[in-house]
Model the fold of this input.
Amino acid sequence: MIDGRPHHHALAVELTSACNQKCAYCYNAWREDDGREVGALPSATLITLLDRTLRETRFDHLTFTGGEPFSRRDLFDILDVCVRHQTPFQMISNGGLITDAHATRLALYKPLSVQVTLNAPEAVMHDEVVGGEGHFERTLRGIRTLMHHNIRVVGCVVVTRKNASLVGETLDLFASLGVRSISFSRFSPSGYSSTHAAALLPSRTDILIALEAANARAELHGLSIQSTMPIPPCVVEPDDYPRVRFGSCPIGTSTQEFALGPRGELRNCTLHEAPLGDALIESAASILRAPAVMHYRDVTPEFCAPCPHASTCMGGCGAASVALTGVRGLDPFVAQHIDPAMAAQLAEARRAETALVSVASLVRR
Amino acid sequence: MGNEDENRRAILARRARYIAMAVAGVSTATSATACVCLSPLYDAGGDANSDAPIPDARLPTLPDSQRPVWPATDASTDAPAASEDASAEDASPGDADSDAP
Done:
């Protein structure tokens, strides 16, 4: 409790389901139809909801994401809520819609950072994975515009089976743009991206290659690199990559980032689809004490049970496991190597070029 | 297939080593700490390797006079319009060519 309000670390606010890109690795469950079915909360409703949430609950910061947050025309009215509550915020954007006018105005709000993703050092591969031609150049323009206005840009690389060998060159590009903080986000299937798991899920070997390059570029360019998806210690020895900081799943800990979806539903994180409750009709403060939060860490995958790291590692990303298998178990990133059934399914899906999870089976929230 | 076998062996060997160390009472801490997924690392204390300082966590107060007019965005053409997304009345009048506060 701080100033009478319960305190939490972070809340990711999915401002809209709309996006100008359609990334194969997108974790939004509503991406298949470009978010048309889910939509977004009307301006007044969202502002009232955020205002009430921040009155009831203190967060160290908010993370505005989507969809693409810059596709909301009332973005700055929403940021005004943070100003009123003196709540710092950061943003996740593809950069493609950011104009000089946006950046000029955004700079006044002093965002902690804007995270922008590049998946390759050149247009063809980047555009292929984000859903169309021209996005690479638009994203570069957005990064340059933000940097020009002294807005801190955090570069992100989603490391997949397709681009793992290009991570070093992609980091070279970020460095040439003046970006020094990097999120190393190994692909984790959930939501829409679970339909692309066979094509994108990197192997341990892929991640070792990417981490080797990342560690070297961190040294070369003075980059600060954070692995922003859990990479279990049975897969990788963190000490082999001393310039990369590793993390584990924060759900149920003091560093959890909850998610507020585009229909007002609160969830355990942006990757988990199951709602904890509806913040439009219930107090966010009480929803965030739900059993699904408080007892999340009670579940341990069978493979991990005897491991002394189980309580912190949790077997990797539980949301990815739910997305591919329907239950909280071992992260598919690990399971692909130790579970013969998962390995066989992946091999067959890759051979036949089919999806492990069908679009039709995506949960419609 | 060679890599597959090697990956499986490496994971099982590391897991077995951790379990053996735990049984022997040897500490097995890793440097990994609970950390928000997918978001940039929030570090109010600053980032030693970053070229730009992390902004002061206190947000500015923006008097109305400092608020720029709403910058027009190409979202309406580039982004698929969500049915209930920010409607016209949600946005202040904008000037596409103006980037001045």
